[in-house]
Design goal:
This protein is mainly beta and 113 residues long. The protein is built from no helices and eleven strands.
Length: 113
């Protein structure tokens, strides 16, 4: 579900839907396209051979953090990762990365954009 945003045009107020990025499993709002970090998209393969198309966001307020930070097999040198989970249904959405800054790398197929 999108949130309405009010915009004033020539003394009139229009309500327009605000774009959101939601969990594909439950529809919970995870983040906003406005929070997309650059470079935004990456494709990685983990040690188990699974490939992930990851979208990076400077913040994802609807994604919680699970697990202890680790640098093992991290796709971003200089960062540690933890799991990013949906705060609505606890589905694994991707990873939180902490290092020189903090950002979320979310799995594209687990999101509705």
């Amino acid at each position: 579900m999108t949130k309405p945003a009010s915009i004033e045009l020539e003394g009139k107020t229009e309500v327009q839907p605000q774009k959101t990025v939601r969990c594909r499993n439950c529809g919970h709002v995870v983040t906003s396209p406005a929070l997309a970090a650059q470079p935004h998209e990456h494709t990685f393969r983990n040690p188990g051979g699974y490939s992930f198309h990851v979208l990076c966001y400077s913040d994802a307020p609807g994604a919680g953090e699970a697990g202890e930070p680790t640098t093992e097999h991290c796709w971003f040198p200089g960062y540690a990762w933890t799991f990013a989970i949906c705060m609505g249904c606890h589905t694994h959405l991707g990873w939180w990365y902490s290092g020189p800054d903090r950002f979320a790398g979310l799995i594209a197929t687990r999101l509705i954009r």
